[in-house]
Amino acid sequence: MPDFQLHDEATAPEASKPLLAKSKKAFGMIPGLHAVMAEAPGMLEAYQTVHELFVNSSFDSDELTVVWQSINVEHACHYCVPAHTGIAKGMKVDDAITAALRNETPLPNAHLEALRTFTLSVVRNRGNVDERAVQDFLDAGFTRRQILEVVLGVSQKVMSNYTNHLAKTPVDAMFQRFEWRKAA
């Protein structure tokens, strides 16, 4: 596997420099994932754009976290699970939700469990979700719009999870206390 450089504003390709500045402004630092993605400016720009679109979707903080962490855990992303644990804390998501997602145990309510179930169905079946799963999602109070917003969340997580697997992105210092390994 090639070693991926963790770029900063001095080492990044020219087109990535303003993108890294944007990351630094948003997060107070350059997350390791963004530092890796800076190698390919289009990738970092696409990731930032999809992230903003998903954050501004119709999902609330708990629901965003369920989509993100369901995918992160399913993909066994060593970087994103700890990062989104810290992000969930910052978003005031109940620790019980985060623990259930990290440990793959039942969520505290049926609505969030339906969101996790549907999200995992989309991921595991590569979008070929059967009609019953779609109807169960709608019956749980979600909308057709949110079906597509789950796909948006999946696209964001595919970019980040796959990048982290390939680059072996080191977990940022601020998230190391949330280290995670997928249960056997």
Quick synopsis:
The chain is an all-alpha fold and 184 residues long. It is built from 9 helices and no strands.
Report the portion of residues in β strands: under 5%
- For the record, give the distance between the C-alpha atoms at the N and C termini, rounded to a whole number: 25 Å
Highest-level CATH class of the domain at 60-178 = Mainly Alpha
Structural class: mainly alpha
Largest sheet: none
Return the CATH topology of the domain at 60-178: AhpD-like
Total DSSP helices? 9
Quaternary organisation: single chain
CATH H-level superfamily title of the domain at 60-178: AhpD-like
| Quantity of strands, as a count | 0
Mean pLDDT: 97
Per CATH, the architecture of the domain at 60-178 is Up-down Bundle
User: What fraction, in percent, of the residue positions are helical?
Assistant: 55-70%
Name the shape in a single word.
globular
List the secondary-structure elements in sequence, H or E: HHHHHHHHH
Low-confidence stretches: none
Give Rg in angstroms. 16 Å
Organism: Parazoarcus communis
Protein name: Carboxymuconolactone decarboxylase
